[in-house]
Automatic annotation (TrEMBL), chains A, B:
Pathway: Cofactor biosynthesis; (R)-pantothenate biosynthesis; (R)-pantoate from 3-methyl-2-oxobutanoate: step 2/2. It comes from the Bacteria. It comes from Sphaerospermopsis reniformis. It is an enzyme of class 1 (oxidoreductase). This is 2-dehydropantoate 2-reductase. It catalyses: (R)-pantoate + NADP(+) = 2-dehydropantoate + NADPH + H(+).
Length: 314, 314
């Protein structure tokens, strides 16, 4: 049996998957659901997974946050493009000493959440997960799944491994979710951006998969130059990412199966892009430290144009 | 009657148009034609123009350069992507003191031509012409048409206004072609690149027309930043373009009719892009003067990727 109760804010490909795994392992889990509410209340959640399929015929599901109990852990697993709703959603869900677990991409989200709810602890989670929602309440987990957790403190000061992190670690490990803890959330976030900025960005701008980007000598070089700018951005906030990590990311991506990035999927489905969290915030945070990242800014400008036009086309 | 004889190397939308105007005005003109040879030998050239339509039922047309006479002026009006054929074509066409008139986009072409034929004078021409070849031997002139001429000397040293330039000026003016002379070819080429690099580049990368690029605040800013890098490139070769010229280009483009750039047209028709002449050469020339232009390099890398894939798709 798990120790903590969980509220899942955003029962999609990511939140639905992790939440279902936690409930299956015996945790108390409450799911906030938007458009799939009727389906999920009737039929529960179905997980098709490379690690084994399972169904949860009955889940505690809500379409109004006011009806949900406050929980030990509030998992934020909506897309960052929806984060404006958090000012409404988080206050009724948390209690003193709740943990808000931010399973989102990008930088600076924890700071925004700290401004919305000040009586909580915030933990950031970096998810390496490949999963899709293929129908209401029906999630297809294709590959990976590992989460890296780090606790947030003001100014992203590194706080080491806390008891709260260990408690979540315990629950997730019991639920069969691969998990690791990091002493420095900000370093972890920059490291993830080192992949996300070049590949998410270029995949949308060039209508390309990761293998196409790596097969061309010009874009491969551009990826590397973008990674060096992410390294500079990290350095501007006092985080050192070694050159060898860039090489590791490049080699890793060459070996990956051809991959359509999450931003490209959003783009192809005419959904808003997570440009601000993944590209805009790192740019702004580096700029606050007097470091400019011209190539990332160029990517940002191109993505904003494409995102605006893409949504205008709807 | 014109004074000079002309060989037109590349009887397309540009060379065909100017060559026909020159013949109509009484100049001796010899047209080198590739795929349209049979059509042009039978039916001549047809020009549909906003300045008045006309036909030349008979023109001196060739599909082999060896059969052409050497001429006073050899007009190079193929696309720069075909310039590898110039090593075969130019030597038999020129005589001592011929003028090679380079009506092409980009930078550095005159230097390449000087290496192929050393006994000639080279004049570069910047064409502001909007015209299309709509069928074999049939050209549609939509708008503009002005040519700016500057004479080339080693290292692009400015040589002022020469007698040769004046002779061409006379013929072109007689033919009803708007023409102006510049004392500094390199400055003229950089100024044209200030428009060509951002708009040609972004139109292909973002699948956009000029009005879309200018309507979005992000890409509008990116255009301006790219123009500033062109300004830096010009400065690296000792040419000063004032800031006011950037503003003029931006204002001019906002006022233009929505425009699909020539590089975008090439891309849409699966033709090779003039990336090297328009983007690669300026980058390399600035680099030779120890100036790096990171945004233009980013554009270059993206365009090379798209160009390679586009031609692979054929």
């Amino acid at each position: 049996m798990g120790n903590l109760s969980y509220a899942i804010v955003g029962t999609g490909a990511l939140g639905g998957f992790y939440g279902a795994k936690l409930q299956k392992a015996g945790n108390e889990v409450h799911f906030l659901v938007n458009s799939d509410y009727q389906q999920v209340i009737k039929h529960g959640l179905t997980i098709e997974s490379k690690d084994g399929d399972f169904r949860l015929p009955q889940v505690q599901v809500y379409n109004q946050v006011e009806k949900m109990p406050s929980c030990d852990v509030v998992v934020v697993s909506i897309k960052t493009t929806q984060n404006h709703i958090l000012t409404q959603i988080l206050p009724p869900l948390v209690k003193d000493d709740s943990i808000v677990l931010v399973l989102q991409n990008g930088l600076g989200i924890e700071t925004e959440i700290a401004q919305i709810v000040s009586n909580v602890n915030i933990i950031g989670g970096l998810c390496f997960l490949c999963s899709n929602k293929i129908a209401p309440g029906h999630i297809h987990h294709l590959d990976y799944g590992k989460i890296t957790l780090g606790e947030y403190a003001t100014n992203y000061n590194a706080v080491g491994i806390t008891e709260r992190m260990k408690a979540i670690f315990q629950d997730f490990e019991n639920a069969g979710i691969e998990i690791e803890l990091t002493e420095d959330l900000l370093l972890g976030r920059w490291k993830k951006l080192m992949w996300n900025i070049p590949y998410n960005g270029l995949s949308v701008i060039l209508d390309a998969t990761t293998d196409e980007i790596m097969a061309d000598m010009y874009t491969r070089t551009l990826v590397e130059q973008l990674m060096k700018e992410v390294q500079l951005g990290a350095k501007s906030t006092g985080r050192i990412i070694p050159d060898s990590f860039i090489q590791t990311m490049l080699d890793y991506t060459v070996k990956m199966k051809p991959y359509r990035t999450s931003m490209k999927i959003d783009f192809d489905e005419n959904r808003p892009l997570e440009v601000e969290a993944i590209v805009g915030n790192p740019l702004r945070i580096a700029a606050e430290h007097d470091v400019s990242l011209p190539l990332i800014r160029c990517l940002y400008q191109q993505l904003k144009f494409l995102d605006n036009r893409n949504r205008g086309d709807r």
